[in-house]
């Protein structure tokens, strides 16, 4: 597991300011304000500097927002997108291109994207925002967020006492080692001994919604200098670098390219899905 992201995503790196339910409520209220939207225009769209702690808290409450048609909560994708959009709109004021982006487009992300248990919906809520903010940097920004998610013990304890209606402090943490909802939830259920249908698990996912929203805000803030996005992680995951030359990239000389299988794609922790694999060549 890499330690490269620890300093960037540590509490010392967060912008200080008002937080908690009151500040989160301010952002949530912003979603209902009437606005005169400017034409969306070409990307990249402008960004203010965001307060990651406020974004986190509003993201947590966004997870619990109820869909009146189903009486179920909207979940993680909506929670992340709603708080990022509200914070961006608040910072820029009326008339920005962000005003034309409807939140309905994020409701599909719940429970691993249309309830398939694939990509975690919290990640799915952030990545389109990255694409509009910096289409040229979305791969680097998204890779940083996804890797942080895979390597970090979650949920954090930062929202333990935020919601008096759902007091679930000191919950078990787990490292997903995967961006997939199915694996992330399964690993947490194993670590905690809780059922996936339990309110404990829902509280865990609500907190992860806040955690991902906060990490996404930190990543977006790295664009604010105007000098372009500088990736947080500068090396590949160890359990990918040991596999890449046989399955994806050409091997280093003098090994002939003929040995490459060229049968895979993606940068991730290979051993999550292939625990019995034995690397024969290292990229290091």
Descriptors:
globular; 284 residues; 2 strands; 11 helices; two-stranded antiparallel sheet
Provide structural commentary:
This protein has 284 residues and is mostly helical. It has 11 helices and 2 strands. The chain has helices at residues 6-9, 21-30, 52-63, 76-92, 121-133, 138-151, 181-192, 199-221, 238-241, 244-247, 270-273, and strands spanning 66-67, 72-73. It has a two-stranded antiparallel ribbon with strand order 1-2. α4 (76-92) runs parallel beside α8 (199-221) and α5 runs antiparallel to α6. The two termini are 15 Å apart. The model is unreliable at 14-21 and 33-38 (pLDDT under 50).
Produce the secondary structure layout:
Elements lengths: L5 H4 L11 H10 L21 H12 L2 E2 L4 E2 L2 H17 L28 H13 L4 H14 L29 H12 L6 H23 L16 H4 L2 H4 L22 H4 L11
């Amino acid at each position: 597991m890499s330690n490269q992201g620890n300093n960037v995503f540590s509490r010392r790196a967060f912008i200080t300011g008002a937080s908690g339910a009151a500040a989160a409520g301010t952002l949530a209220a912003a979603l209902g304000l009437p606005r005169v939207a400017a034409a969306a225009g070409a990307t990249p769209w402008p960004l203010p500097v965001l307060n990651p702690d406020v974004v986190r808290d509003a993201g947590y409450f966004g997870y619990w927002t109820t869909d009146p048609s189903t009486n179920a909560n909207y979940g993680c994708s909506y929670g992340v997108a709603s708080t990022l959009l509200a914070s961006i709109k608040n910072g820029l004021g009326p008339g920005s291109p962000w005003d034309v982006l409807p939140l309905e487009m994020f409701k599909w992300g719940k429970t691993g994207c249309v309830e398939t248990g694939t990509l975690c919906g919290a990640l799915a809520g952030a990545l389109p925002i990255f694409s509009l903010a910096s289409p040229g940097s979305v791969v680097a920004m998204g890779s940083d967020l996804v890797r942080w998610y895979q390597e970090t013990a979650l949920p954090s304890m930062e929202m333990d006492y935020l919601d008096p209606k759902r007091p679930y402090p000191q919950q078990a943490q787990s490292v997903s080692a995967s961006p997939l909802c199915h694996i992330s939830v399964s690993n947490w259920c194993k670590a905690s001994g809780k059922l996936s249908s339990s309110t404990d698990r829902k509280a865990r996912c609500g907190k992860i919604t806040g955690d991902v929203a906060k990490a996404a805000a930190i990543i977006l803030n790295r664009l604010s200098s105007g000098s372009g996005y500088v990736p947080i992680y500068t090396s590949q995951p160890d359990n990918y670098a040991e596999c890449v030359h046989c399955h994806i990239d050409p091997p280093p000389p003098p090994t002939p390219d003929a040995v490459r299988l060229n049968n895979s794609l993606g940068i991730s922790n290979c051993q999550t899905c292939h625990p019995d694999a034995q690397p024969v060549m290292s990229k290091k």
